[in-house]
Write a structure and sequence with these properties.
Distance between the termini: 32 Å
Strand content: 15-25%
Number of strands: 12
Mean pLDDT: 94
Number of helices: 10
Bound molecules: zinc ion
Length: 327
């Protein structure tokens, strides 16, 4: 009967689509596949692509349950997509219903911040915690909350959006339309843009960065800034440390308000080295309340955190435990 107990985990990551199969209680994938969403992708093309991946892995079997991490805003209770900022056509897409009709099993959908929080809590760096804040720092800054062993969605599925806490009301413009959000000060594209601007003003300000991108400023990313900082470049470290400090300040606000047991930080920018972590932790500790713990750990599951969260969501549908999606 093991075939009938398979769980299907799906991750709509924006540019990358992933599907994996596991069994309840397992800590490894039985099979895992991914595909890049093509240039000019729409909801329909992404939908067809992920259905094909899923069917290839299921090999004619019906899964016991389906869990989905979606890189956009969702209405979790109904499994409906609200918006996907990079791919058109997702608005109002009834993803859970469509999956149930297509693959014959119950499905549950969460945004990727919540799914990753659940993944780290169940299988990664957040194991054993009653309360956890998960933060991801990559092209944006997102997050998710676990309280008393369950996801906390908020009244409108908008809890955990730590990236849009405003630190500098007159600061740089954020994708959300406000100014000086944590995201606009700490996320990768903003960090890269700041380095680009500095090099345009003074090309001699960072020879290391210039040589890393071979003079092509358009190709400059946050990863280049981190590499240059680690190589001792003063400008790169100044920009990277400002980004780390902004993230730490945002985390401090969350700590003061909710006093979680642990904070887990993942995403590409979180791989910027020990000094980055030190600055971020110090900025958080400096603003936390005296006596409150400030335990900030790197994510353990890397890019697979949302997919493992999706597996945990699927498992929640078929076990007697309270569903991790309801609160
Ligand atoms: Zn914002």
């Amino acid at each position: 009967m093991p075939e009938a107990r398979r769980l299907l985990a799906l991750d709509f990551g924006g540019t990358k689509l992933s599907a994996a199969v596991t069994a309840p209680g397992a800590r490894a994938w039985l099979d895992r596949q991914q595909a890049w969403s093509p240039q000019g992708a729409t909801a329909q093309t992404d939908w067809k692509l992920i259905c094909r991946l899923a069917r290839q892995m299921l090999r004619g079997q019906t899964p016991a349950a389906i869990g989905v991490s979606f890189g956009g805003q969702v209405e979790a209770a109904g499994g409906v997509v609200r918006v996907q900022p990079h791919v058109p056509g997702w608005e109002g897409f009834r993803l859970a219903e469509r999956l149930e009709a297509e693959l014959g099993a119950p499905a549950v959908v969460e945004n990727d911040g919540n799914a990753a929080a659940l993944g780290e809590w169940r299988y990664g760096a957040g194991q054993g915690c009653q309360s956890l804040l998960y933060v991801t720092v990559s092209t944006g800054v997102g997050g998710g909350w676990i309280f008393n062993g369950r996801l906390w969605h908020g009244a409108d599925d908008l809890a955990g959006e730590i990236g849009h806490l405003v630190l500098q009301p007159d600061g740089p413009l954020c994708a959300c339309g406000k100014r000086g959000c944590v995201e606009a000060l700490a996320a990768g594209p903003y960090l890269a843009a700041r380095a680009r601007e500095a090099l345009q003003v003074d090309p001699d300000s960072s020879p290391t960065l210039l040589s890393l991108v071979q003079g092509n400023l358009d190709s400059l990313t946050a990863e280049h800034v981190a590499l240059a900082a680690q190589a001792g470049d003063a400008l790169a470290w100044q920009l990277l440390s400002e980004a780390g400090r902004a993230l730490g300040r945002g985390i401090a606000m969350a700590l003061v308000l909710m006093n979680p047991e642990r904070v887990v930080v993942g995403g590409g920018v979180a791989k910027s080295g020990e000094r980055y972590w030190q600055v971020m932790r110090e900025a958080a500790a400096a603003r936390a309340l005296a006596g409150a713990r400030v335990e900030i750990l790197p994510a353990a599951l890397g890019d697979d955190a949302p997919l493992w969260g999706a597996a945990a969501l699927a498992e929640g549908l078929i076990t007697n435990h309270p569903s991790p999606t309801t609160y």
